[in-house]
Amino acid sequence: MTKIITSVPEAHAELSRLMDDAEHIAAFTGAGISTESGIPDFRSKDSLWKRNPPIPFDEFMSSETVRMESWRRKFTMDDSYTGAAPNVGHYALARLVDEGRMHAIITQNIDGLHEASGVAKDRIIELHGNGTYAKCLTCGVRHELSAVRKKFESSNRAPACLCGGIVKTATIAFGQAMPQDEMRRAHAATLQCDLMLSIGSSLVVYPAAGFPVLAKESGARLVIVNRDETPLDGIADLVIRAGIGEVLAPWAGRDRLN
Ligand SMILES: [Zn+2]
Fold first, then answer.
1. Which helix (H) or strand (E) holds 151?
2. Residues 88-143: tens digit of each pLDDT
3. CATH number of 40-80+129-171: 3.90.1150.10, 3.40.50.620, 3.30.1600.10, 3.40.1110.10?
């Protein structure tokens, strides 16, 4: 039976109780945890994303003109949240990882803010890749965005790799295959947890949203913290509809609360 809470003090009490009962906590995070850092949610109605939507993978591959447009949108979006930094929600999870209470953060986000909050890379599973750098689709070598952008702006051509391969942000575009290693790690981390905290995900994008379902099916407890209803609320043990920062603040540590 799902318990739904909208009061923040009540959320603190319930969440503490569930977390104290748990031995292995995993987090599953979505766009909502980063909106408090000023990163627009792809799904929000007046988002810049609506005018600069990401281009599906097959279209990206189809022509240089489309790739140019894709880079233009990417840099336009990046400029809209330059300097975005982790917030209380990210720091709370970082501290739980530090204390050994949380073994994995599975994220749908591509903003790199979990890493920026101090979490070791091997504790973060980026299901949809990372938008803070680029990669060659042929040889896999990493390309820094600053260099890509310089080339893009000076030559008016989509950047290519030295090997001749196509360079793309290190994200998983719509229609692109899910990264096998990350899927495997997320699966293992999900089976290991006895409590999963789904934070700021609308839980509508699959296969990612399958992990909270798998957690529940494997006997873990599931807590959903999200501003809006989600399709998985009915299978959760606890649903908290309140701001993520205020809900997670007690776990962030006083030095990081500002
Ligand atoms: Zn290459």
1. helix 145-155
2. 999 999 999 999 999 999 999 999 999 999 999 999 999 999 999 999 999 999 99
3. 3.30.1600.10
